[in-house]
């Protein structure tokens, strides 16, 4: 079942209200809309592996190891997993799951423990301190593209120095996963992570692109060029298929890099089915 995307019912983001000119947000009211809470245990393993891998230094260096899982859904399983995984990098990490739907918070609170808490809130992140990491997965996809820039700005404005915001999307069981990472000033990169064997062509991941890009996979847009380049390199690497899809993915990433795409990270990430490209090469036109 697909839920229709919604505008944020808050003038701070959308610059308008349903009944007329924009009014200031009501103090204390979470910014955002309650949406369906679909989630699944372990579906965020691929992004969490990136956060505890190439990005782990951010958490290690943080003055205050505060992390937010924004919009954790009907059950808090993926927030608990985030806490367990980040604890291996930073034992004193504090993960707070924020949900806009109060009943989901009431239920999650039963799982609170030192370092893990839950509270009601929205994109304003209503808690003291500045998080070093905000992970919002399958949340912005439920809003409209026109609201993304405003939501990004609001969350970016809350980050600690050196902090990042992850706006990501995945399929039901986390075999196809993409995310944009942003620091306080700008978007940094798009990452894609796939399970080998779950696709025929790498561009199939386009169905799971974050909201900011999903409607941009059309001729002329940079992300469409990337999808085409990935498919071309994948097909040209077909002779490597007999050595396994890992070798073939590696060859695809190397071909993109050689072809001038600003591929970040390297072979140790490619072998996981991951590819990260600098945002400057992908920013939507207009
Ligand atoms: C599809 S679920 C995703 C759950 C989980 N993050 C995952 O990917 O498995 C989206 C959740 O985000 C919550 N949500 C939507 N907008 C929000 C906002 N502005 N602030 C906090 N939570 C929000 C919804 O209530 C819903 O529970």
Which labels suit this protein?
286 residues; alpha/beta; Rossmann fold; 2 domains; 9 strands; 29% helix; binds S-adenosylmethionine
Which helices and strands appear, and what pairs or packs with what?
Elements: H1 11-14, H2 45-51, H3 56-61, E1 66-70, H4 77-87, E2 94-99, H5 102-108, E3 116-120, E4 133-137, H6 145-156, E5 164-170, E6 176-182, E7 187-194, H7 211-214, H8 222-236, H9 245-258, E8 263-264, H10 267-270, E9 274-278
Parallel strand pairs: 1-2, 1-4, 2-3, 4-5
Antiparallel strand pairs: 5-6, 6-7, 7-9, 8-9
The chain binds S-adenosylmethionine (SAM).
S-adenosylmethionine is lined by residues 31-39, 43, 70-73, 78, 98-101, 104, 122-123, 137-139.
